[in-house]
Design goal:
six-stranded mixed beta sheet; alpha+beta; flat; about 20% helix
């Protein structure tokens, strides 16, 4: 026999939604320097976020949430699957895009963002050998046993993955991996036993500007910016190599002439995870007792097709959470027309046949320039980074596009303006826009990825029904195992007992979701719960129940008439 309890089914199609012509803590999944992979951790404020996650996209996304919304972030670091890279604006690896006439050429490579020491604590072949790791002069960690034949290991607190050669290691040998990409060893084995693969710490826009011209690199001076010029360093003397502190970026300069005011620009991508790791992270959240309303998957897929595939995977996991009676929404990122490949038409086509079950998934389209509360840098981030704190800082029933919530914090620029090129909000993507007469940037409406016409096609409806389901689940669970009187004529539940249950559950729902207008509990127009009157409890021991939610109405289109009036013509 199955376990006793309460199951929850979501009805749809009851609102007649026209096909278009404070939520609390949230979880975030992605890559970060700190934290334990696939282990959820609650971070209560921005300082704790920085001290725990140390850096990387997950860290900065979590900081946006805690800083803007003032709520806790449940962070789940994921494993690195693909290393990051540095490319010119034209896509050439390690190169810079030059504006000017300098003969000298800078290039960029990646290295550990902090010095790493690797000590062989137990000698022998792989499978027997064990190693300890020290980062930035810190104490060595607990010995880690290698695996047989081949072994790769990500050093905790870094984005550096070390491949260990299949050889015999000597106890107490110490390998040093430097921030300029060089390596050495104190001991008997060669440094070539270790092959590190590193990544830039974040999605930097590296801009080098020559401030002092010279015929060679030694007399030349330059500045660097990690955010395309918004924040710039003091002048630095030229050299064969220069390590940009804490970034994993190593610059190299050829010894040739450099011209003042010439610029060199390159873009960095941080390391990335994959759908398998994301699925494991959501599974870890499901097993956790930590409370959160939604899950933001940090990291933008490289193509619209990859984004659509990931959307399907995430949505399946959200259905699994709901089956486990954890009603959560998801937020994910999608590339857009900014990269010229993923045009609106390409993105819309990729998602044409995808529909999120009960609208649980929201997809942020394209990018914006967003100021980091941790570093002060203005970096290119997905629209999803802004949607997450907007939802966490507003009521369940409030549309993210509600103008009276104010413009979007920390956003300095948007790349795709839905007001200028409309259509993608109708295609169910969360888009940003400008508004005439308003300073700043805004969301256009509130679409989820539900099928068009679904009751769950509005983000507020999804959030409200999730909260209602959570409240009703707890209230009905109190009735499990209870005994009720049977009507002497019908054999069904006595009306007095049925009304008692209805009043209890409805009372709890109304208390939390139907307050006075503009109060914290003003989440829906009305709500009531009703148990079935014709359930054969004697035979099945199964009671049915229905929760009726009357949602808020939303105004996204206002038609106003303006004209002149002559009071004299209106007299008697």
């Amino acid at each position: 026999m199955s376990l006793s309890g309460v199951s929850m089914t979501f009805a749809d199609g009851n609102l007649g939604v026209a096909v278009p012509g404070p939520g609390g803590a949230q979880a975030k999944i992605g890559v970060s320097l700190g934290g334990t992979e696939l282990s959820p951790i609650s971070l209560g404020n921005t300082t704790v976020v920085g001290n725990t996650l140390l850096g990387g996209p997950l860290c900065d996304a979590a900081a946006q949430l805690t800083d803007v919304a003032g709520v806790a972030c449940i962070a789940v670091p994921c494993g690195i699957i693909t290393a990051g890279a540095i490319k010119s604006l034209a896509g050439s690896a390690g190169a810079f895009t030059r504006i000017g006439t300098s003969v000298g050429v800078p290039t960029a490579t990646v290295a550990p963002h902090q010095t790493i020491l690797v000590k062989t604590s137990t000698g022998g072949a792989l499978g027997t050998a064990a190693f300890q790791f020290s980062v930035n002069g810190g104490a060595y960690g607990t010995p880690v046993l290698s695996t047989v034949t081949s072994w790769s290991y990500r050093v905790p607190g870094t984005f550096c993955v070390i491949a260990f050669a299949a050889t015999t290691y000597t106890a107490n040998d110490v390998y040093t991996l430097n921030t300029d990409g060089t390596k050495s060893v104190v001991g008997t084995n060669p440094a070539s036993n270790l092959t590190p693969t590193s990544s830039p710490v974040d999605a930097y826009d590296v801009l080098l500007t020559i401030t002092t011209a010279a015929s060679g690199r030694a007399a030349m001076q330059f500045t660097y910016s990690l955010d395309g010029g918004a924040v710039t360093s003091s002048p630095i003397s030229g050299a064969a190599t220069y390590v940009i502190p804490g970034t994993g970026i190593v610059l190299a300069f050829t010894d040739a002439a450099y011209v003042a005011n010439d610029t060199f620009e390159a873009l960095c991508t941080p390391p990335a995870t994959n759908s398998t790791q994301i699925g494991l992270a959501i599974t870890a959240l499901q097993a956790s007792s930590l409370q959160y309303e939604g899950i933001h998957v940090v990291g933008t897929p490289t193509s619209a097709a990859d984004a659509a595939s990931l959307a399907s995977s995430i949505d399946t996991k959200l259905v699994g959470l709901a089956t486990a009676q954890k009603f959560r929404f998801g937020i994910m990122e999608c590339p857009g027309a900014t990269d010229t490949v993923n045009t609106d038409a390409v993105v819309a086509a990729a998602f044409l046949n995808f529909a999120s079950v009960k609208g649980r998934l929201f997809v942020g389209l394209d990018w914006c320039d967003l100021v980091s509360p941790l570093t002060g840098l203005t970096l290119q981030r997905s629209v999803a980074w802004v949607l997450s704190p907007r939802l966490a800082s507003s009521k369940l029933s409030e549309s993210p596009g509600k103008v009276n919530l104010g413009n979007l914090p920390n956003v300095r620029n948007i790349y795709r303006d839905e007001a200028a090129t409309p259509g993608m909000a109708d295609a169910r993507f969360v888009c940003m826009r400008t508004r005439e007469g308003k300073v700043g940037f805004w969301f256009e409406r509130h679409p989820s990825m539900a099928s068009l016409g679904s009751d769950y096609s509005r983000i507020p409806n999804v959030r409200v029904v999730h909260r209602a389901a959570t409240i009703a689940l707890a209230a009905y669970t109190d009735e499990v195992g209870g005994d009720f009187r049977a009507d002497e004529k019908t054999g069904f539940i006595d009306e007095r007992d049925a009304q008692s249950i209805d009043n209890i559950v409805t009372g709890q729902l109304k208390a939390q979701l139907t307050g006075e207008r503009n109060t914290k509990t003003d989440e829906c127009s009305d709500i009531k719960a009703q148990v079935g009157r014709q359930d054969d409890l004697s035979s099945t021991e199964t009671m049915t129940a229905t929760i009726f939610v009357l949602p808020k109405d939303y105004v996204n289109y206002i038609s106003a008439t303006i004209g002149f009036v002559n009071p004299a013509l209106q007299q008697g």
